[in-house]
Design goal:
The chain folds into two domains: 279 residues, Aldehyde Dehydrogenase, Chain A, domain 1, CATH 3.40.605.10; 183 residues, Aldehyde Dehydrogenase, Chain A, domain 2 (3-Layer(aba) Sandwich). Helices cover 38% and strands 23% of the residues. The protein contains 14 helices and 21 strands.
Amino acid sequence: MLHKNLIAGEWLVGESEIENRSPSDVTDLIGVFAQASSDQLEATLDQAQQAQREWAAYGMERKQAVLMNIGNELMARSAELGALLSREEGKPLAEGKGEVYRAGQFFTYYAAECLRQIGENADSVRPNIEVDVRREPVGVVAVISPWNFPTATASWKIAPALCYGNAVVWKPANITPASAYALTEIIARQDIPKGLFSLVMGSGSGIGERLVQSPKVNAVTFTGSVPVGKRIAIAAIQNLTKVQMEMGSKNALAVMDDADIDLAVTLALGGAFGGTGQKCTASSRLVVHEAIHDTFVEKLVAGTKAMKVGHALEEGTQMGPVVSAEQLAENLAYVDLGKSEGAELCCGGERLEMPHDGFYMSPGVFLNTLNDFRINREEMFAPLTSVIKVASYDEALSVVNDTNFGLTSGIVTKSLARATHFRRNARTGVVTINLPTAGTDYHVPFGGRGDSSYGSREQGKAAAEFYTTVKTAYISAGPV
Protein backbone atom coordinates (compact mmCIF):
# COMPACT_ATOMS: atom_id res chain seq x y z
CA MET A 1 0.00 0.00 0.00
CA LEU A 2 1.27 3.46 -0.91
CA HIS A 3 0.96 5.94 1.97
CA LYS A 4 0.46 9.48 0.68
CA ASN A 5 1.42 12.92 1.94
CA LEU A 6 -1.16 15.36 3.26
CA ILE A 7 -0.71 18.36 0.97
CA ALA A 8 -2.90 21.46 1.34
CA GLY A 9 -5.59 19.31 2.90
CA GLU A 10 -5.46 16.53 0.27
CA TRP A 11 -3.85 13.10 0.37
CA LEU A 12 -1.50 13.07 -2.64
CA VAL A 13 1.17 10.84 -4.16
CA GLY A 14 4.65 12.35 -4.45
CA GLU A 15 7.45 12.52 -6.95
CA SER A 16 8.87 9.20 -5.74
CA GLU A 17 8.42 6.54 -3.03
CA ILE A 18 10.54 4.83 -0.39
CA GLU A 19 10.19 1.44 1.30
CA ASN A 20 9.98 1.20 5.08
CA ARG A 21 11.37 -2.02 6.56
CA SER A 22 11.67 -3.17 10.14
CA PRO A 23 15.16 -3.02 11.70
CA SER A 24 14.17 -6.13 13.67
CA ASP A 25 13.64 -8.09 10.45
CA VAL A 26 14.43 -6.46 7.11
CA THR A 27 12.16 -8.95 5.32
CA ASP A 28 9.23 -7.23 7.08
CA LEU A 29 8.00 -4.54 4.68
CA ILE A 30 5.91 -2.08 6.69
CA GLY A 31 4.83 -0.01 3.72
CA VAL A 32 5.71 2.27 0.84
CA PHE A 33 5.65 6.01 1.49
CA ALA A 34 5.38 8.95 -0.88
CA GLN A 35 8.08 11.59 -1.09
CA ALA A 36 6.78 15.11 -1.53
CA SER A 37 7.89 17.34 -4.41
CA SER A 38 9.04 20.95 -4.13
CA ASP A 39 5.88 22.10 -5.94
CA GLN A 40 3.75 20.28 -3.36
CA LEU A 41 5.68 21.95 -0.56
CA GLU A 42 4.97 25.38 -2.00
CA ALA A 43 1.28 24.57 -2.43
CA THR A 44 0.92 23.35 1.13
CA LEU A 45 2.73 26.41 2.52
CA ASP A 46 0.38 28.72 0.64
CA GLN A 47 -2.65 26.88 2.00
CA ALA A 48 -1.16 26.82 5.51
CA GLN A 49 -0.97 30.60 5.60
CA GLN A 50 -4.67 30.90 4.85
CA ALA A 51 -5.65 28.06 7.18
CA GLN A 52 -3.67 29.57 10.04
CA ARG A 53 -5.71 32.75 9.94
CA GLU A 54 -8.91 30.70 10.05
CA TRP A 55 -7.66 28.55 12.93
CA ALA A 56 -6.57 31.57 14.95
CA ALA A 57 -10.16 32.82 14.78
CA TYR A 58 -11.57 29.58 16.21
CA GLY A 59 -12.93 29.85 19.75
CA MET A 60 -10.81 28.48 22.60
CA GLU A 61 -13.20 25.62 23.36
CA ARG A 62 -13.27 24.57 19.72
CA LYS A 63 -9.46 24.36 19.65
CA GLN A 64 -9.46 22.60 23.00
CA ALA A 65 -11.84 19.92 21.70
CA VAL A 66 -9.60 19.25 18.68
CA LEU A 67 -6.48 18.68 20.76
CA MET A 68 -8.37 16.64 23.33
CA ASN A 69 -9.74 14.36 20.61
CA ILE A 70 -6.26 13.77 19.20
CA GLY A 71 -4.81 13.01 22.62
CA ASN A 72 -7.60 10.69 23.65
CA GLU A 73 -7.35 8.70 20.43
CA LEU A 74 -3.59 8.32 20.79
CA MET A 75 -3.97 7.02 24.33
CA ALA A 76 -6.84 4.70 23.39
CA ARG A 77 -4.83 3.27 20.49
CA SER A 78 -1.44 3.20 22.24
CA ALA A 79 -1.16 -0.59 22.06
CA GLU A 80 -1.85 -0.66 18.32
CA LEU A 81 0.21 2.38 17.36
CA GLY A 82 2.94 1.50 19.84
CA ALA A 83 3.38 -1.85 18.12
CA LEU A 84 3.68 -0.06 14.78
CA LEU A 85 6.25 2.33 16.25
CA SER A 86 8.32 -0.49 17.73
CA ARG A 87 8.10 -2.45 14.50
CA GLU A 88 9.60 0.39 12.44
CA GLU A 89 11.97 2.00 14.97
CA GLY A 90 13.15 -1.05 16.91
CA LYS A 91 12.51 -0.10 20.53
CA PRO A 92 10.93 -2.80 22.74
CA LEU A 93 7.15 -3.02 22.59
CA ALA A 94 6.58 -1.63 26.08
CA GLU A 95 8.61 1.46 25.17
CA GLY A 96 6.69 1.91 21.92
CA LYS A 97 3.33 1.72 23.67
CA GLY A 98 4.52 4.08 26.38
CA GLU A 99 5.73 6.60 23.82
CA VAL A 100 2.40 6.75 22.03
CA TYR A 101 0.51 7.08 25.30
CA ARG A 102 2.80 9.91 26.38
CA ALA A 103 2.24 11.59 23.01
CA GLY A 104 -1.48 11.54 23.78
CA GLN A 105 -0.76 13.23 27.09
CA PHE A 106 1.05 16.05 25.31
CA PHE A 107 -2.08 16.76 23.31
CA THR A 108 -4.43 16.62 26.30
CA TYR A 109 -2.08 18.87 28.29
CA TYR A 110 -2.07 21.49 25.54
CA ALA A 111 -5.81 21.05 25.09
CA ALA A 112 -6.12 22.39 28.63
CA GLU A 113 -3.63 25.15 27.84
CA CYS A 114 -5.99 26.37 25.10
CA LEU A 115 -8.21 27.61 27.93
CA ARG A 116 -5.38 29.12 29.98
CA GLN A 117 -4.18 31.74 27.52
CA ILE A 118 -4.48 34.66 29.92
CA GLY A 119 -2.68 37.92 29.20
CA GLU A 120 -1.33 40.65 31.45
CA ASN A 121 -2.37 44.21 32.10
CA ALA A 122 -0.73 47.15 33.76
CA ASP A 123 -1.04 50.86 34.24
CA SER A 124 1.10 52.97 31.98
CA VAL A 125 3.65 55.38 33.41
CA ARG A 126 1.51 58.00 31.64
CA PRO A 127 -1.77 59.05 33.26
CA ASN A 128 -5.11 57.61 32.11
CA ILE A 129 -3.49 54.93 29.91
CA GLU A 130 -3.75 51.19 30.42
CA VAL A 131 -1.46 48.53 28.98
CA ASP A 132 -2.64 45.14 27.65
CA VAL A 133 -0.04 42.43 26.94
CA ARG A 134 -1.05 39.22 25.21
CA ARG A 135 0.35 36.48 23.03
CA GLU A 136 -0.64 35.84 19.41
CA PRO A 137 0.25 32.96 17.05
CA VAL A 138 3.65 33.15 15.39
CA GLY A 139 2.13 31.89 12.08
CA VAL A 140 3.25 28.87 10.03
CA VAL A 141 5.50 26.49 11.97
CA ALA A 142 7.81 23.99 10.29
CA VAL A 143 8.27 20.88 12.44
CA ILE A 144 11.31 18.72 11.66
CA SER A 145 11.32 15.70 13.97
CA PRO A 146 13.72 12.78 14.56
CA TRP A 147 13.35 9.02 14.19
CA ASN A 148 14.24 7.97 17.74
CA PHE A 149 10.98 9.26 19.26
CA PRO A 150 8.91 9.54 16.09
CA THR A 151 5.57 10.12 17.81
CA ALA A 152 6.46 11.74 21.14
CA THR A 153 8.94 14.35 19.92
CA ALA A 154 6.69 15.32 17.03
CA SER A 155 3.74 15.59 19.42
CA TRP A 156 5.49 17.86 21.88
CA LYS A 157 6.08 20.23 18.95
CA ILE A 158 2.77 19.87 17.09
CA ALA A 159 0.48 20.07 20.13
CA PRO A 160 1.69 23.48 21.42
CA ALA A 161 1.92 24.82 17.87
CA LEU A 162 -1.79 24.09 17.34
CA CYS A 163 -2.72 25.13 20.88
CA TYR A 164 -1.38 28.62 20.34
CA GLY A 165 -3.12 29.09 16.99
CA ASN A 166 -0.47 28.17 14.43
CA ALA A 167 -0.46 26.12 11.24
CA VAL A 168 1.96 23.16 11.05
CA VAL A 169 3.97 21.76 8.15
CA TRP A 170 5.62 18.55 9.38
CA LYS A 171 8.65 16.86 7.86
CA PRO A 172 9.32 13.69 9.85
CA ALA A 173 12.42 11.53 9.62
CA ASN A 174 12.33 9.25 6.60
CA ILE A 175 13.38 6.25 8.70
CA THR A 176 10.07 6.21 10.60
CA PRO A 177 7.34 7.31 8.16
CA ALA A 178 4.66 4.88 9.36
CA SER A 179 4.34 6.52 12.77
CA ALA A 180 4.18 9.92 11.10
CA TYR A 181 1.44 8.78 8.73
CA ALA A 182 -0.58 7.30 11.61
CA LEU A 183 -0.46 10.51 13.65
CA THR A 184 -1.29 12.61 10.59
CA GLU A 185 -4.32 10.45 9.82
CA ILE A 186 -5.67 11.16 13.32
CA ILE A 187 -5.08 14.90 13.08
CA ALA A 188 -6.52 15.16 9.56
CA ARG A 189 -9.90 13.84 10.74
CA GLN A 190 -10.38 16.66 13.24
CA ASP A 191 -12.40 19.88 12.99
CA ILE A 192 -9.58 22.00 11.52
CA PRO A 193 -9.31 24.26 8.46
CA LYS A 194 -8.15 22.68 5.22
CA GLY A 195 -4.37 22.75 5.08
CA LEU A 196 -3.83 23.71 8.71
CA PHE A 197 -1.76 20.58 9.21
CA SER A 198 0.42 19.08 6.48
CA LEU A 199 2.64 16.02 6.19
CA VAL A 200 5.54 16.43 3.75
CA MET A 201 7.66 13.30 3.85
CA GLY A 202 10.98 13.61 2.05
CA SER A 203 14.72 13.85 2.44
CA GLY A 204 16.36 16.37 4.70
CA SER A 205 18.61 17.60 1.89
CA GLY A 206 15.60 18.10 -0.37
CA ILE A 207 12.29 18.88 1.30
CA GLY A 208 13.89 19.74 4.63
CA GLU A 209 16.21 22.38 3.20
CA ARG A 210 13.50 23.99 1.07
CA LEU A 211 11.22 24.10 4.08
CA VAL A 212 13.65 25.96 6.34
CA GLN A 213 14.66 28.31 3.52
CA SER A 214 11.08 29.32 2.74
CA PRO A 215 10.01 32.89 3.57
CA LYS A 216 6.49 31.50 4.04
CA VAL A 217 7.62 29.76 7.25
CA ASN A 218 7.54 31.90 10.41
CA ALA A 219 9.20 29.46 12.81
CA VAL A 220 11.24 26.24 12.61
CA THR A 221 11.42 23.71 15.44
CA PHE A 222 14.00 20.96 14.97
CA THR A 223 15.34 17.97 16.87
CA GLY A 224 18.40 16.23 15.44
CA SER A 225 22.16 16.47 15.13
CA VAL A 226 24.35 19.50 15.76
CA PRO A 227 25.68 19.78 12.17
CA VAL A 228 22.17 19.70 10.71
CA GLY A 229 20.98 22.16 13.35
CA LYS A 230 23.70 24.63 12.43
CA ARG A 231 22.77 24.41 8.75
CA ILE A 232 19.13 25.03 9.62
CA ALA A 233 20.05 28.08 11.69
CA ILE A 234 22.12 29.54 8.86
CA ALA A 235 19.28 28.98 6.37
CA ALA A 236 16.55 30.29 8.66
CA ILE A 237 18.35 33.49 9.59
CA GLN A 238 18.28 34.62 5.96
CA ASN A 239 14.54 35.24 6.43
CA LEU A 240 14.87 36.11 10.14
CA THR A 241 12.80 32.99 10.82
CA LYS A 242 12.36 32.08 14.47
CA VAL A 243 14.35 28.93 15.34
CA GLN A 244 14.22 26.40 18.18
CA MET A 245 16.58 23.42 18.16
CA GLU A 246 17.30 20.41 20.36
CA MET A 247 20.51 18.73 19.24
CA GLY A 248 23.27 16.56 20.62
CA SER A 249 24.28 15.48 24.10
CA LYS A 250 26.93 13.65 26.10
CA ASN A 251 25.12 13.07 29.36
CA ALA A 252 26.91 12.00 32.51
CA LEU A 253 25.66 10.06 35.53
CA ALA A 254 27.89 10.64 38.56
CA VAL A 255 28.00 7.75 41.06
CA MET A 256 29.37 8.79 44.42
CA ASP A 257 31.10 6.77 47.13
CA ASP A 258 27.98 6.90 49.32
CA ALA A 259 25.63 5.78 46.53
CA ASP A 260 23.23 2.86 46.75
CA ILE A 261 25.23 0.77 44.27
CA ASP A 262 22.38 -1.48 43.20
CA LEU A 263 20.26 1.58 42.48
CA ALA A 264 23.14 3.21 40.61
CA VAL A 265 23.59 0.14 38.42
CA THR A 266 19.88 0.00 37.63
CA LEU A 267 19.89 3.69 36.69
CA ALA A 268 23.00 3.30 34.56
CA LEU A 269 21.67 0.27 32.66
CA GLY A 270 18.35 1.92 31.92
CA GLY A 271 19.89 5.26 31.08
CA ALA A 272 22.62 3.87 28.85
CA PHE A 273 20.79 1.09 27.00
CA GLY A 274 17.11 2.03 27.04
CA GLY A 275 15.95 2.63 23.47
CA THR A 276 19.19 0.92 22.33
CA GLY A 277 21.07 3.99 23.54
CA GLN A 278 19.39 6.03 20.82
CA LYS A 279 18.23 8.82 23.14
CA CYS A 280 19.42 12.39 23.47
CA THR A 281 19.19 11.83 27.23
CA ALA A 282 21.19 8.57 27.30
CA SER A 283 23.80 8.07 30.05
CA SER A 284 26.83 7.69 27.80
CA ARG A 285 29.33 8.73 30.50
CA LEU A 286 29.36 7.05 33.91
CA VAL A 287 31.52 9.09 36.28
CA VAL A 288 32.28 6.78 39.19
CA HIS A 289 34.03 7.44 42.51
CA GLU A 290 37.14 5.30 42.92
CA ALA A 291 36.01 4.03 46.35
CA ILE A 292 33.13 2.03 44.84
CA HIS A 293 34.39 1.80 41.25
CA ASP A 294 35.28 -1.89 41.18
CA THR A 295 32.07 -3.05 42.86
CA PHE A 296 29.97 -0.84 40.60
CA VAL A 297 31.74 -2.04 37.46
CA GLU A 298 31.38 -5.69 38.42
CA LYS A 299 27.63 -5.32 38.83
CA LEU A 300 27.27 -3.07 35.77
CA VAL A 301 29.03 -5.57 33.52
CA ALA A 302 26.98 -8.44 34.89
CA GLY A 303 23.78 -6.50 34.26
CA THR A 304 24.89 -5.53 30.77
CA LYS A 305 25.71 -9.11 29.81
CA ALA A 306 22.35 -10.27 31.17
CA MET A 307 20.31 -7.92 28.97
CA LYS A 308 18.16 -9.72 26.43
CA VAL A 309 18.62 -8.34 22.93
CA GLY A 310 15.90 -9.33 20.50
CA HIS A 311 13.11 -8.50 18.08
CA ALA A 312 11.29 -5.39 19.22
CA LEU A 313 7.92 -7.16 19.30
CA GLU A 314 9.06 -10.30 21.12
CA GLU A 315 8.12 -10.73 24.75
CA GLY A 316 11.03 -10.31 27.12
CA THR A 317 13.15 -8.16 24.82
CA GLN A 318 15.00 -5.55 26.86
CA MET A 319 16.93 -3.99 24.00
CA GLY A 320 15.88 -4.00 20.38
CA PRO A 321 17.96 -3.56 17.23
CA VAL A 322 19.75 -0.44 16.07
CA VAL A 323 17.51 1.62 13.76
CA SER A 324 19.41 1.09 10.48
CA ALA A 325 22.40 -0.47 8.78
CA GLU A 326 24.06 2.95 8.60
CA GLN A 327 23.61 3.55 12.33
CA LEU A 328 24.97 0.09 13.13
CA ALA A 329 28.08 0.78 11.03
CA GLU A 330 28.64 4.06 12.89
CA ASN A 331 28.25 2.30 16.24
CA LEU A 332 30.79 -0.38 15.38
CA ALA A 333 33.18 2.32 14.16
CA TYR A 334 32.95 3.95 17.60
CA VAL A 335 33.79 0.60 19.19
CA ASP A 336 36.97 0.47 17.12
CA LEU A 337 37.71 4.11 17.92
CA GLY A 338 37.39 3.52 21.65
CA LYS A 339 39.80 0.62 21.50
CA SER A 340 42.28 2.67 19.49
CA GLU A 341 42.15 5.42 22.13
CA GLY A 342 43.12 2.96 24.83
CA ALA A 343 39.72 2.18 26.31
CA GLU A 344 39.04 -1.37 27.46
CA LEU A 345 35.87 -2.84 25.96
CA CYS A 346 35.04 -5.20 28.79
CA CYS A 347 31.81 -6.53 27.27
CA GLY A 348 29.51 -6.20 24.27
CA GLY A 349 29.90 -3.83 21.36
CA GLU A 350 29.58 -6.62 18.80
CA ARG A 351 27.20 -7.28 15.94
CA LEU A 352 24.88 -10.14 16.85
CA GLU A 353 23.62 -12.89 14.58
CA MET A 354 19.96 -13.46 15.37
CA PRO A 355 17.13 -15.62 14.00
CA HIS A 356 15.80 -12.50 12.28
CA ASP A 357 17.80 -10.55 9.72
CA GLY A 358 18.10 -7.23 11.54
CA PHE A 359 20.57 -4.68 12.88
CA TYR A 360 21.46 -6.16 16.25
CA MET A 361 24.42 -5.44 18.49
CA SER A 362 25.23 -6.23 22.09
CA PRO A 363 25.31 -3.41 24.66
CA GLY A 364 28.89 -2.43 25.41
CA VAL A 365 30.81 -0.97 28.36
CA PHE A 366 34.17 0.81 28.07
CA LEU A 367 36.49 0.92 31.10
CA ASN A 368 39.66 2.89 31.85
CA THR A 369 38.52 5.85 29.80
CA LEU A 370 39.49 9.51 30.06
CA ASN A 371 37.09 12.36 29.54
CA ASP A 372 39.11 13.69 26.60
CA PHE A 373 38.66 10.48 24.59
CA ARG A 374 36.52 11.05 21.51
CA ILE A 375 34.10 8.39 22.73
CA ASN A 376 33.51 10.69 25.71
CA ARG A 377 33.31 13.90 23.67
CA GLU A 378 31.09 12.90 20.74
CA GLU A 379 27.50 11.74 20.77
CA MET A 380 27.54 8.10 19.68
CA PHE A 381 23.78 7.42 19.77
CA ALA A 382 24.63 3.79 20.43
CA PRO A 383 24.19 1.15 23.16
CA LEU A 384 27.66 2.03 24.44
CA THR A 385 28.68 3.69 27.68
CA SER A 386 32.03 4.65 29.20
CA VAL A 387 33.16 4.50 32.81
CA ILE A 388 35.37 7.37 34.00
CA LYS A 389 37.01 6.88 37.42
CA VAL A 390 37.32 9.94 39.68
CA ALA A 391 38.83 10.49 43.10
CA SER A 392 36.33 12.94 44.61
CA TYR A 393 32.98 14.68 44.27
CA ASP A 394 34.70 17.84 43.07
CA GLU A 395 36.47 15.93 40.31
CA ALA A 396 33.21 14.22 39.36
CA LEU A 397 31.41 17.56 38.97
CA SER A 398 34.29 18.91 36.92
CA VAL A 399 34.14 15.92 34.56
CA VAL A 400 30.36 16.16 34.26
CA ASN A 401 30.66 19.80 33.19
CA ASP A 402 33.64 19.26 30.88
CA THR A 403 31.70 18.88 27.64
CA ASN A 404 30.49 21.00 24.73
CA PHE A 405 26.99 19.73 25.43
CA GLY A 406 24.65 20.37 28.34
CA LEU A 407 21.35 18.55 28.09
CA THR A 408 21.02 16.27 31.13
CA SER A 409 23.17 15.10 34.02
CA GLY A 410 22.54 13.06 37.13
CA ILE A 411 24.05 12.10 40.45
CA VAL A 412 23.54 9.08 42.69
CA THR A 413 24.23 9.95 46.32
CA LYS A 414 22.69 9.76 49.79
CA SER A 415 24.09 13.16 50.73
CA LEU A 416 21.59 16.01 50.65
CA ALA A 417 24.47 18.49 50.63
CA ARG A 418 26.07 16.91 47.55
CA ALA A 419 22.75 16.54 45.79
CA THR A 420 21.94 20.20 46.39
CA HIS A 421 25.38 21.39 45.30
CA PHE A 422 25.21 19.23 42.16
CA ARG A 423 21.73 20.47 41.28
CA ARG A 424 22.92 24.06 41.50
CA ASN A 425 26.28 23.63 39.78
CA ALA A 426 25.80 21.04 37.03
CA ARG A 427 25.78 23.00 33.78
CA THR A 428 22.91 21.18 32.12
CA GLY A 429 19.33 22.10 31.33
CA VAL A 430 18.02 19.04 33.18
CA VAL A 431 19.44 17.58 36.39
CA THR A 432 18.36 14.33 38.06
CA ILE A 433 19.02 13.14 41.62
CA ASN A 434 18.96 9.37 42.21
CA LEU A 435 17.13 8.98 38.89
CA PRO A 436 18.27 8.09 35.36
CA THR A 437 19.36 10.90 33.05
CA ALA A 438 16.66 9.75 30.63
CA GLY A 439 12.98 10.40 31.27
CA THR A 440 11.24 13.77 31.49
CA ASP A 441 7.74 15.06 32.21
CA TYR A 442 5.55 16.85 29.68
CA HIS A 443 4.34 19.75 31.85
CA VAL A 444 7.73 21.31 32.63
CA PRO A 445 10.46 22.86 30.44
CA PHE A 446 12.92 20.65 28.55
CA GLY A 447 16.16 21.74 26.92
CA GLY A 448 19.87 22.16 27.42
CA ARG A 449 22.92 24.38 27.13
CA GLY A 450 25.89 24.62 24.79
CA ASP A 451 25.63 22.49 21.67
CA SER A 452 22.59 20.68 23.05
CA SER A 453 19.99 23.40 22.49
CA TYR A 454 19.37 26.70 20.78
CA GLY A 455 16.41 28.96 21.35
CA SER A 456 13.63 28.81 23.90
CA ARG A 457 12.68 25.72 25.90
CA GLU A 458 10.23 23.05 24.80
CA GLN A 459 7.26 21.59 26.73
CA GLY A 460 5.15 22.93 29.55
CA LYS A 461 4.20 26.59 29.68
CA ALA A 462 7.68 27.48 28.39
CA ALA A 463 6.54 26.41 24.91
CA ALA A 464 4.53 29.63 24.61
CA GLU A 465 7.79 31.56 24.24
CA PHE A 466 8.45 29.92 20.87
CA TYR A 467 4.99 29.37 19.42
CA THR A 468 3.69 32.88 20.10
CA THR A 469 4.69 36.47 19.61
CA VAL A 470 3.97 39.17 22.19
CA LYS A 471 1.80 42.19 21.45
CA THR A 472 1.69 45.17 23.80
CA ALA A 473 -1.32 47.48 23.42
CA TYR A 474 -1.74 50.94 24.97
CA ILE A 475 -5.32 52.12 25.57
CA SER A 476 -6.26 55.68 26.42
CA ALA A 477 -9.59 56.00 28.16
CA GLY A 478 -9.74 59.73 27.50
CA PRO A 479 -11.22 62.29 29.85
CA VAL A 480 -14.11 61.30 32.11
